[in-house]
Amino acid sequence: QITLRESGPVPVKPTETLTLTCTFSGFSLTSSGVGVGWIRQPPGRALEWLGIIYWNDDKDYSPSVKSRLTITKDTSKNQVVLTMTNLDPVDTATYYCAHRYSTWGPFDYWGQGHLVTVSS
Amino acid sequence: SYVLTQPPSVSVAPGQTASITCGGNNIGGQSVHWYQQKPGQAPVLVVYDDSDRPSGIPERFSGSNSENTATLTISRVEAGDEADYYCQVWETGSGLDVFGGGTRLTVL
Fold first, then answer.
1. DSSP B4-70
2. What is the DSSP code (8-state) at residue A90?
3. Of the candidates B96, B61, B81, B21, which has an alpha carbon nearest to the alpha carbon of residue A62?
């Protein structure tokens, strides 16, 4: 059974750096093709894909956040970490991590989401 | 960047068929995935690779994809199908993922 769970701070101040951890079970991020992606959703708005890391440490980022976003993995801990710098109130959103089994495949398992509020 | 266009809302009476479209340039050449999201919950995959269903998803959910439009079809709509629906592709040109703007399905 695949599960994912996001964790991290709730209130973050503008210009600060956000660090979110996705802890997963039921799969290995060393298996060929597997990836863990990050998707966010501002309140009342649509899903926005942020980026993804794959089993072979390949990474892709959305152009809209590429300059501020870093995704890393720790396979020994079954964790993926999102780091986003220079936060702004427009970054207020629920952040989800999700599993995919191949590069072009769907996000078939999602975490429950973690609401991040950026406010002074 | 690749853009996926969905209608903001679709309304349908119970028992009828709902069709939710997702437009994109030559989307027929991509694999399209569809997600259902109910208020306060994480998205759930309901159709993948244009027309396949994950286990546990009712046969009432189906999909198609051709040329510039992909479609999610929900037959015999039930009150419990009321939700936001999102299409998504991994765009082969850029190698990046894209979500549509979402469609709110209202069951009258």
1. -B--SEEEE-TTS-EEEEEE-TTGGGS-EEEEEE-TTS--EEEEBTTTB--TTS-TTEEEEEETTEE
2. G
3. B96
Per-residue pLDDT of chain B (108 residues; tens, 9 = 90+): 899 999 999 999 999 999 999 999 999 999 999 999 999 999 999 999 999 999 999 999 999 999 999 999 999 999 999 999 999 999 988 989 999 999 999 999
Nearest CA in chain B to A110: B42
Give the residue numbers in A contacting B (CB under 8 Å), as ranges.
37, 39, 46-49, 52, 60, 62-63, 96, 103-108, 110-113
Nearest by Cα to A47 from A117, A113, A119: A113
Interatomic CA distance for residues A11 and A14, integer angstroms: 10
